[in-house]
Amino acid sequence: MPATLLTRCFCAIYALLLNAYPREFRRRYAGEMRQVFSDRCRQVARAHGWPRLVRFAVASGADWVVSAVREGIDAIVTTRRASARKSAPRGFVAEWAMTILVYLFATTTLVQAYVVPTGSMEKTLRVGDHMLVDRLTYADPGSAALKRVLPYRDVARGDIVALLFPEDVRQTYVKRVIGLPGDRIHLVNGNVVRNGRRLIEPYTQHIAGTRDPYRDDFPTAPDMYTSPRGRDMLLHHVRAGEVVVPPGALFVMGDNRDNSSDSRYWGFVPREYVVGKPLIVYWSFDAPTEDLENWSLRHVVDVSLHFFSKTRWDRMLLVPRSQAAVETESEP
Amino acid sequence: MSKMKSATELLPLTPPVFHILLALSDEERHGYGIMQEVARQTEDALQLGPGTLYGCLKRMLAAGLVEESDERRDPELDDQRRRYYRMTALGETVARAEARRLANAVLAAKSKRLLDRRAEEGKS
Questions:
Q1: Is residue A40 less than 8 Å (CB to CB) from chain B?
Q2: Checking CA distances to A2, which of A38, A45, A62, B102 falls within 20 to 30 Å?
C-alpha cells in the first residue's frame, strides 16, 4: 500500500526537518511534533488516500519553514532578553574586563607612567616628577600610509625622550637628544659644539665650580665613570676629536650637565630604545632617589603623611617641552 | 492582579491561539487532539501544522494561558510523547474577552449589513 510507505517516508523526512528548530524548542516539543505529524499522516491516509497525504505533507513543509524561522528569531530574542536581565553581575565583570583591557592597551601602546628618579635632567625635570610618557609619537608605524594617519614624528634634536638605559634595559631614563645620526659632537668648556657650531642651550644648568676635563671637554681621555660601552664609543666613533653619531643611534645628554650620567659616559642610544616622549607631569613629590626607584613602606608613610606639603603643586600638569638649541654661526 | 491586567493586553489573539483556547475550553487534549478539534471547529478552514501548533502552545504556556496536565485522558493512545494541555483560569478570561471582542466585531459587521443571512447562505 503506497500510503503506508509514504507515511513512513514523510515521517522520516519530518524527523530530519525538526533539526531546523532551535535546540530548546526541539528538546521540549520535537517528540510531540513527530507524534502529531505521524498521527495526522495515518489519519489522512486512512480517510482520504495518498493524494491528500501528499497535500498534507506539502502544507506541513510550508508550516515547517514558517515556524522554524519564527522560533529561531524567538530564541535569539529570548536569549538576548535573558542576558540583558542577567546583566547586573555579568555587566560588572564585563565592565571591569573592558576597563582592564583598555588600561593594558593604553599602558602598553599609548602612554606609560614614569617617575624621574635622578636629578640629571634638573632644571627641566625634577626628582620625584611623576609623568606620563607618550609612547606613540616616536613609535615607527612601519608603513608610509600609517605614518600619515598616526601622530608619528621622528626624534629631533632638542627633544626630551624617555629611553631604555642601554646598560640595563630594565631602567628608563629621560634625556635630551643632542646628536642625530651623522652629527659630530664635542664639548668645549662645558658647551656643546655640534657639527662645528657652538650651541646656546637655555635649558641646561651648570652647578659644578670645578672643571672636569672629560665631562666638560668631551671626548678626552675616559675617566673612572666612563663605562666599557662609553669606552667603546670613544674607541670606534671619534674622528678628529669629535664623536660621530652612527646610523640608527642617538647621542643624549641630561640638562643638568655637570651631574648627568649620559651618552658621554655610556655611549649612544639605539633608536629603538627610545620609549616615548614625556607628555605631562601629573604629580611631583619631593622624595629621595632611592624611594622613587624602589617603593618602600617608609615611602608610603612619607607620601600619606606629607602628601600636601611635599607635593610640588607648581609642577602639576607641567608639560616638558622640546627645545631646540640656538646654533651659533661660528666655531668657538 | 497583574495577570488579570495582562488578560486585555494579550488581545487581540491570533486565530490559531484563539482556536487552541476554544479547543481546550471543554476538555484537556493532546497536540493531535487540539489539531483535530480546531479543524472540526473551523470546518477545515484552519489546519494547524505541527510547527505552528507547538509554537503557539509554547507562547501560551509562557503567558500562562494553558498548562500541562498530568492526567492521561486517552489510555488507548497514551504514550510518553503525548502530553495533555488544559486551559488555565487566565486562559479562560482571555478567551472570553476575545470572544466578546469578536462578537462586537460581528455586531458591527451586522450593523453595516455585511453579515445578512442571504450572503452567508450564498457562501456556504
A1: yes
A2: A62
A28/B contact by beta carbon, under 8 A: yes
Interatomic CA distance for residues A15 and A34, integer angstroms: 6
Q: What helix, strand, coil percent values describe chain A, rounded to 5?
A: 50, 20, 30
Q: Which domain range does residue A265 map to?
A: 101-327
> Residue A36: which of B53, B55, B79 has the nearest Cβ?
B53
| Residue B55 forms contact with A (CB below 8 Å) | yes
Is B98 in a helix, a strand, or coil? helix
Domain contains A94: no
B91 touches chain A (CB under 8 A): no
Kindly list the residues from chain B whose CB atom is less than 8 angstroms away from the CB atom of residue A21.
51
Residues A144 and A44 in one domain: no
B112 to chain A, minimum CA–CA distance in Å?
A: 35
The CATH code of domain B2-123 reads 1.10.10.10
pLDDT digits (tens, 9 = 90+) for A257-316: 998 999 999 999 999 999 889 988 888 888 888 777 777 788 888 888 888 888 888 888
Co-location of A193 and A72 in the same domain: no
Q: What is the interface pTM, i.e. ipTM, of the complex?
A: 0.82
- Cis status, amide bond into A288, omega within 30 of 0: no
Best of B38, B54, B58, B85 to mutate (most A CBs within 10 Å, chain A): B54
Contact criterion met (CB < 8 Å) for A32 and B52: no
The pTM for the full model equals 0.50
